[in-house]
Structure formats: C-alpha cells, structure tokens
C-alpha cells in the first residue's frame, strides 16, 4: 500500500490547523465583541463554506489563483508562489474552507464568558492583547480544542476543493480522499478500502478524544 | 477628592433613562449610591471606571483629569487607578486564589503586599484553590482583596454583598471597613441594604431616574423623617388564620416572619400577597440586647 496520500492528508490538515488557529483568534475576537455595522457581512462570509458546495469554492480558487489572470499572476510574479496544483494552494484553500469550523467555536466560547472578566483585567491595567492571552483564551480551552479538532478533521475529509484546485499530483496534491476516488475508478476496491478504513479509524479516535476531554470523562477517570 | 459630573442616556429596563449626576466626594470617604434597580447606580460606577462612555461630562480625581468630553480627554480603564468588585465577582476561573491576586499586581515588588492582604482577608487556607471550589463569602473576600492589590485611588463596589446570607454579610462588612481604613481608600458602594449603609458609609446619595434626589449622612437620609414615635415596617402578607375570636396575620418583613393580631374588620380587605405596613407606637415595643 502507498502511504503517501495518507501522510500528505495529515500534513495538510496539520499545517492548515496551525495557521487557521492563529488567523481565527483575531477574527473570532472581533466577531464576538464588535458592534460594527459590517459584522453581519463578515459573519456571513466566514460561514459561507458551511453551505457552499466545495466545488464552487474550488472553482473560484482555480479561477482566482490561475497564473492566467491578474491576481494569480501577481502572486506568481511578486511572491514566486504558484497556488494552482500546489501544496501551498491546497493549504490556502483549506484555510478558507475550514474557517467556520475554527471561528465558530472560539467566537461562541468568547461570547459565553462574562464580560466582567475582561473588564476586571482592564481595570488591573492589563492591555487587550494581554487580557485575551492570559484571561480569555485560558478560560475557553474546550472551545479551542473543539475548533482545532473540527478544523483538522474537516480538512482530512476535504474532497471537492482539493480536486478542483490541487488536482491529483502524487506526493504534492494527491490526498487520501482523492486517492480513494482514484482507486475506485480503477476498480481497485481493496486499496480504496484500506485508505477508507484508516481515515475512518483515525477520525473516530480524534473526535472521541474531544468528547472525552470536553465532557470531563478523562478528569473523572484520573481522579 | 473626586469631582464627578456626567450625563448619559441609557436604555434602562423602564425605557430611556437620563443619567445626570454631579457628585463631589472627599478623599477617604465611604459613600453609598442607593436607589431602586434601574436608577443608574451601576452605570455611574461603570462610567467612573471607564468601562462605559459618558455622553458628556468631566471626572477629576485628585487633580488628574480622567474624563473631560469638552477637551476630548478620556483615560482608558487601564490607566485609571480603580479597584472594582463586580456583582459576579469576576474571579478568573483558571487561576488559583493566590494567582488571582498576583495577576492584579503590576510588578514583583508588592509581593509582601499580597501576603498582607491574604492575612487581613483571612485567605491563607484557600490560597491554592480555584474560585469554583470556594464559597460565596470566600469568593467575595478574594474579589475584595484582588481589587485592592494595586492600591487603587478609588474602590468601587457594585452590590457586592447582595448574594450573601446575613451572617456572611455582617462579616464581610467588617472586612470592608477594615480595608477601607487600612489602605486610605475612597470607596463608593452600591447598596440596597439600609442597615449596611448605616454601618459602613458616611454619606448617601439617593438616585431616582438617574438623578440624585436626596443626599446626606445615612441618618439624615433614612431616619429623620421617621422620628414620629412610631415603628413602621413594610411587609408581605404570607398567611391569614382565624384563632378563636381574633385573626393572626403572618407578615414577612425583610427576612423575618412576624405574627400580627388583627380584628375581623382589619382583615376584611386583606389578601395573602398584599403589601402592608406594620406600625406600632413607641411605648409598645420591647428592646432587648442580642449581641
């Protein structure tokens, strides 16, 4: 069995999740506390990947990132990054595709905290950033864990976006979900089955860990 | 010395509320804002702390200008030296009691001060426990201690004792008085409890619909008009029972149940749940020392 697609899948999911975590925190913070008129528009945009068929997203990425048009060309020329049919492109597309899975839990975690926690910290002379890092985030650990795991799992399960923008280049963009499709197309059911079974097992374990940790079962067990 | 003059229109529970206050507080005073809920007491504290923006106004504390809307000065809450005890205490759940205190310190030099506060507020035994495992009174003491770590100029207390039972309340009142004097604080308390106000504060502002309608010492404000030689208490009727030839009406006054004998004619219009006035002539009641 060829392990490359599986390794690529988890590499993509890991890189995406790490970057997404960093990006999602300021976005969630803004969405949780801002009273700006523009907020509903940004909220809608963040949630769009939930309802949009991945192929639509992938299609527009393909168009936007293509070196044949201005934006893709500019990125290619000035930054020297090729986004279409490359791992970098996959990461970027995955970040946008999984954005709501990271932003929503963190945003609702922040909104559920009593506003007096933030205010108490300000009155102790702590800046907004310090308050976010030292007071708010440590108190929404379950939300952070949910966001990280859902984004990771969602990226593992990605298909349409990858197919559109990444294609099927072994070792570069051929992730497990594409490999499964490929093997089925070639009537190679046993290979498809091994990939599927591994993905099934791993995602089950990841989600199980989240529910165990957030449900407090582990704490009770170790006591 | 605090000069506090602000205007703010608020969406209150009873519609639009126009807060319009002009209060001068002497350094070292312990004053109380008293009034029905929705009168603007909490908002006044929040504006003073910088947590709420005023429409217009000027706040000067010990000569430094915290707010002056005509000159566009509005000091951030981080820069105002205010200790604030929130109604929900706002203790950080992820930190232990001691860590909560340490979080409030600005540098490492006031380690000894934290130790002193721990001692005064009797927090030694709970230092390493998280807020979730503490009782209401312990949380209250911790919140009070935490608000003083920074040596604030003003201490603001937003109904800090409302959630506690009477014994605990009396205990915390003592602590409060102790730290107020020990640290030369100027304290503003929001309270509903006349007994508490009488015990703690030297000046009361009665707020109604966002305005100060009465001010003075607690005795002037609460007791002068009642020197009519009568006891008067408001209460709720809990039960009306017939006993032989008279009726016994059980009335809840504050937290005490009182039985009052009544004639048939007196209870004619009385129903359970009614708000009544229980009054007595001054020569009637018995006074007895209980503490």
Automatic annotation (TrEMBL), chain A:
Q: Does the keyword Transport feature in the UniProt annotation?
A: yes
Membrane-spanning segments: 12-32, 44-63, 83-103, 144-165, 195-213
Question: Which InterPro entries did the record assign?
Answer: MetI-like (IPR000515), MetI-like_sf (IPR035906), ModB_ABC (IPR011867)
Q: Cellular location of this protein? A: Cell membrane
Instruction: Look up keyword Transferase and say if it applies.
Output: no
Q: How does it sit in the membrane?
A: Multi-pass membrane protein
In what residue span(s) does the ABC transmembrane type-1 domain sit?
A: 6-210
**Main location group:** membrane
- Classification via Gene3D superfamilies: MetI-like
Which CDD domains does its entry note? TM_PBP2
Q: Which domain of life is it from?
A: Bacteria
Q: Which UniProt keywords apply?
A: Cell membrane, Membrane, Molybdenum, Transmembrane, Transmembrane helix, Transport
Role: Part of the binding-protein-dependent transport system for molybdenum; probably responsible for the translocation of the substrate across the membrane.
Q: Which family does it belong to?
A: Belongs to the binding-protein-dependent transport system permease family. CysTW subfamily.
- Per its record, how is this protein called by name? Molybdenum transport system permease
From TrEMBL, chain B:
Q: InterPro entries this protein is in?
A: AAA+_ATPase, ABC_SmlMolc_Importer, ABC_transporter-like_ATP-bd, ABC_transporter-like_CS, P-loop_NTPase
**Signal peptide residue numbers:** none
Q: Which spans of this chain does the record mark as coiled coil?
A: none
Task: Name any one Pfam family assigned in the record.
Answer: ABC_tran
Stretches assigned to the ABC transporter domain: 1-234
Keywords, in A-Z order: ATP-binding, Nucleotide-binding, Transport
| TM region positions | none
Extract the GO molecular function terms from the UniProt entry. ATP binding
The entry's protein name is ATP-binding cassette domain-containing protein
């Amino acid at each position: 069995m060829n392990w490359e697609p599986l390794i690529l899948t988890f590499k993509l999911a890991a890189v995406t999740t790490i970057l997404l975590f960093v990006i999602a925190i300021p976005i969630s913070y803004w969405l949780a506390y801002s009273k700006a008129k523009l907020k509903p528009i940004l909220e809608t945009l963040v949630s769009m990947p939930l309802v949009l068929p991945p192929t639509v997203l992938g299609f527009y990425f393909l168009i936007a990132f293509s070196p044949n048009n201005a934006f893709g060309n500019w990125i290619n020329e000035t930054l020297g990054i090729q986004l279409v049919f490359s791992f970098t492109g996959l990461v970027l597309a995955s970040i946008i595709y999984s954005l709501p899975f990271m932003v929503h839990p963190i945003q609702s975690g922040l909104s559920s905290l009593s506003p007096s926690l933030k205010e108490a910290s300000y009155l102790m002379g702590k800046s907004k950033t310090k308050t976010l890092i030292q007071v708010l985030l440590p108190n929404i650990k379950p939300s952070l864990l949910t966001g990280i795991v859902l984004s990771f799992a969602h990226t593992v399960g990605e298909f349409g976006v990858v197919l559109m923008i990444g294609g099927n280049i072994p070792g570069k963009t051929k992730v497990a979900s594409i490999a499964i499709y490929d093997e089925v197309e070639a009537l190679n059911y046993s290979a498809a089955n091994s990939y599927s079974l591994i993905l099934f097992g791993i995602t089950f374990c990841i989600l199980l860990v989240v529910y165990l940790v957030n449900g407090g079962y582990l704490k009770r067990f170790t006591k | 010395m605090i000069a506090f003059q602000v205007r703010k229109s608020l969406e209150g529970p009873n519609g639009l509320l126009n807060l319009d206050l002009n209060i001068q507080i002497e350094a070292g005073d312990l004053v109380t804002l008293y009034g029905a809920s929705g009168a603007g007491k909490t908002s006044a504290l929040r504006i003073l702390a910088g947590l709420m923006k005023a429409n217009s106004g000027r706040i000067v504390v010990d000569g430094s200008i915290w707010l002056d809307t005509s000159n566009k000065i509005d000091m951030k809450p981080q820069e105002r030296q205010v200790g604030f005890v929130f109604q929900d205490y706002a203790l950080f759940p992820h930190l232990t009691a001691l860590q909560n205190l340490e979080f409030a310190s600005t540098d490492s030099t006031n380690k000894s001060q934290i130790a002193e506060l721990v001692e005064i507020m009797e927090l030694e035994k709970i230092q390493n426990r998280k807020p979730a495992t503490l009782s209401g009174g312990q949380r209250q003491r911790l919140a009070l201690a935490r608000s003083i770590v920074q040596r604030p100029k003003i201490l603001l207390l937003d109904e800090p004792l409302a959630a506690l039972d009477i014994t605990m309340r009396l205990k915390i009142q003592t602590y409060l008085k102790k730290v107020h004097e020990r640290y030369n604080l100027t304290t503003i308390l929001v309270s509903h409890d006349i007994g508490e106000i009488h015990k703690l504060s030297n000046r009361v502002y009665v707020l109604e619909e966002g305005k100060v309608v009465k001010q003075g010492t607690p005795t002037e404000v609460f007791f002068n008009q009642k020197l009519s030689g009568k006891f008067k208490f408001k209460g709720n009727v809990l039960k009306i029972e017939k006993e032989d030839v008279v009726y016994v009406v059980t009335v809840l006054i504050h937290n005490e149940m009182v039985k009052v004998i009544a004639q048939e004619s007196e209870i004619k219009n009385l129903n359970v749940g009614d708000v009544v006035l229980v009054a007595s002539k001054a020569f009637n009641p018995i006074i007895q020392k209980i503490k």
